[in-house]
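Lecture notes, continued. The same structure-token format from the folding unit now serves as the input rather than the output. Read the line below as a description of shape only.
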């Protein structure tokens, strides 16, 4: 069964960035309000994402009306996600990194940047905890609130 699970997961990773599947993405409730609050608080928002199909990122963000929230969108190769994200985090002197994957967490560790894991994305709270994240948050709003309380 583990071999079948790996095969299914690999096929999903191959297909997930196709326009058909990207077209099913939607903005999570409350996400734009949190982005607005972040910007109003003076946050300089960058989007760092690991993808195999970089060409679809701008179209997807534009379709979801998210592109304008970010100063910059940086796409890194999926197979180099940790090192490339860590390099970018250091380069921009990030105050924090909000993310939903283990590569986000590992990049923040490599860059020595405070990480705020959210469970409204790809990974659950239990997954994050098993991978070393101390306090995963249910959503971006909760993570942002925690950040504002410590900064």
């Amino acid at each position: 069964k583990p071999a079948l699970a790996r095969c299914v997961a690999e096929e999903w990773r191959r297909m997930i960035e196709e326009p058909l599947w990207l077209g099913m993405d939607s903005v999570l409730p409350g996400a734009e309000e949190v982005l607005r609050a972040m910007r109003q608080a003076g946050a300089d928002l960058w989007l760092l994402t690991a993808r195999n199909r970089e060409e679809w990122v701008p179209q997807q963000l534009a379709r979801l009306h998210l592109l304008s929230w970010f100063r910059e969108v940086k796409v890194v190769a999926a197979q180099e996600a940790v090192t490339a994200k860590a390099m970018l985090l250091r380069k921009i002197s990030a105050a924090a990194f909000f993310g939903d994957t283990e590569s986000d967490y590992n990049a923040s560790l490599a860059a020595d940047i405070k990480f705020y894991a959210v469970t409204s994305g790809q990974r659950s709270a239990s997954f994050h905890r098993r991978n070393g994240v101390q306090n995963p948050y249910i959503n971006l709003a909760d993570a942002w609130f925690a950040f504002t309380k410590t900064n």
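Point for the exam: The longest strand covers residues 46-51.
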